[in-house]
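user: can you give me the structure for this one chain? C-alpha cells are fine.
assistant: on it. calling the predictor now.
[tool input]
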Amino acid sequence: MTEITIPFHHEMKLAILHGKKDCTSRNKKYGVPGDYFILDQKKFVVGQILKMNLVEVAHMLYAREGFDSPGAFIEYWNMLHPRKGYDPHHEVYVHFFKEVV
C-alpha cells in the first residue's frame, strides 16, 4: 500500500469530499489497487483500475464521476483536454476508490 498523488481540479475534489464522485478517468494509470491518496486529511483507497473507452465512461459512469449527465461529463472532458477533446473510442484508465473510515 503506497501513497499516490492524483491531481484533481477543485470542483472534482469537492465532489469526492461530498461523496458524489468515487471514480476518475485518466490517460495514465495512477498506482495499483490498494494504493491510497489523501484529500483534506481524508484517506481514499484505490479499489480497482479498469481500461475503458470514453463512451463507456460517459454513458455508464457519469454519475460516479460526479456529473448529472453524459453530456456534462463530455463537456468537462473537452474543457480539460481542449486539443484532443472527447473521442468516444479513446481508452482511459478508470480508477475506482472509496474513503477509508
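assistant: here you go. The CA atoms of residues 75 and 88 lie 13 Å apart. The longest helix spans residues 70-80.
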